[in-house]
UniProtKB/TrEMBL annotation:
It comes from Andalucia godoyi. InterPro entries: P-loop_NTPase, Small_GTPase. This is Mitochondrial P-loop-containing NTPase superfamily member. Keywords: Nucleotide-binding. GO terms for molecular function: GTP binding; GTPase activity. SUPFAM superfamilies: P-loop containing nucleoside triphosphate hydrolases. Pfam families: Ras.
Amino acid sequence: MLFLRCKVALIGSAASGKSALLQVFHSSQSAFPKSYLMTMGAELVLKEVRIPDSPVVVELLIQDLGAQAIYDSVTTSLTSGDACPPTFYLLCVDTTSASMDYAYSWFDKHQSAASSAILVATKSDVSDRNVAETQALAETHGIPCFVTSAAIGKDVDAPFNYTAQAFSQMYDDFIQASGALRV
């Protein structure tokens, strides 16, 4: 068995469904939060994801980052600089204008990290949500987009499983390029 650890930042505007998505994923879809509690700074969650048809297990170290302006310095210190930034960013948008504005702003500020972003359209169970703009944004940046709903458990695992598989592939590519033997 080969264990890999991947650092992931869960980002998005306030109330975009980040924490609910993470809680449902972490609980294997058994615990949708019935009440909303604002994330204070950052919350860390560990979850192992087995790679199908492989001896690889990727442990996702997921940072659920608060989106309020008061936490900007915390978010910046956890996601940039020399202190080991995340390998992937799961950018959650609930397709409201505030959430989409956050996403456009994030891409403007973090162009160098855009290729490691994965867009996650949340709250797809709400009838007035139109994910077309989110999908178009993902296409513009050449990144994947997942449509999810934590409330009904729709495709909650998909962005996390994709992240684990992409990280495992990055590891394989690195090992192959370096000529090292895989353990």
